[in-house]
Amino acid sequence: MGRKRRLEYPPAPEPLPVPVIDNHTHLNFRDGLVEVGVREALDAAEEVGVHRAVQVGCDLPSSRFTVEALDADPRLLGAVALHPNDAPRYAERGEFDTALEEIEKLAAHPRVRAIGETGLDYFRTHGEALKVQHESFRRHIDIAKRLGLTLQIHDRDAHDDVVRILGEEGAPERVVFHCFSGDEDLARTCNENGWFLSFAGTLTFKNADNLRRALTIAEPTRILVETDSPFLTPHPYRGRPNASYMVPYTVRGMAAVLHADLAELCGRLDANTVEAYGSWD
Predict the structure, then answer these.
(1) Which residue from 10, 87, 140, 142 has the fewest beta carbons nearer than 10 Å?
(2) 123-159: per-residue pLDDT in tens?
């Protein structure tokens, strides 16, 4: 039998010297032994210097949750979409077009600032379902452009096709590669196009040299930080539940890779995130 996963939330890190923003979290997903509400999660994050967040939808229920959360707490902005692994499921039920119509209606909320997460995932989806993924990605790009919203990309094992489709469709003004998973080549492509690279706890994993190399060549004005919580908990708590209050572990990991002053890096990350999504005020 495998080792039993620990479900206790990790200890809070030392607070950051300058506040930053978690630009990708899923507050609707529950993990761990304790159920944590939106306000509780944001309060815990604020105590360690993570003063704002972007709540991200992946299907209709989570996108509806996102809009409700935006009305409940001003520390949040939102993103709504059909995740690339969920889009084929809607298509199988004959609900794909109506689901996208609702996503566009939800995106009209003034605090929804991004269409996402959308993109391509060649790890969990295969065969004919990939055609739906491609169509879904193109349709989400169109919505983002028509509404003037940021595009938040999920890219798993699909770098070349993600970049190709962005080129064919014409990328929105602001593009974020959520949980950046590429290497130096993709980082250079992002630099050339002015796209944002968002680094998650994966940067701190021992086998993530490709991410650390990518960070070192990324344009400093285009780097962001996220948790993707409750997933991708940073080292040394990998495998435990994740939440926005864990961002400081990743930020310190980024500072170490960049040999950067921590306070200056925090200020840069905060400013970059506002550039990517607009003001929280």
Answers:
(1) 142
(2) 988 888 899 999 999 999 999 999 999 999 999 999 9
**In a 10 Å sphere around its CB, with 0-12 CB exposed, 13-18 middle and 19+ buried, how is residue 188 labelled?**
middle
Answer positive or negative: Cα dihedral of 204, 206, 207, 211: positive
What's the distance, Cα to Cα, between the start and end of the chain in Å?
50
Task: Please state, in angstroms and rounded to a whole number, the distance separating the CA atoms of residues 51 and 74.
Answer: 11
Distance CA 76, CA 279 (A): 11
Which of 45, 63, 61 has the alpha carbon at shortest distance from 53?
Answer: 45
Model-wide pTM > 0.90: yes
Q: At 194, which amino acid appears? A: G
For residue 251, give the 3-state DSSP assignment.
helix
Give per-residue pLDDT as tens, 161-175: 999 999 999 999 999
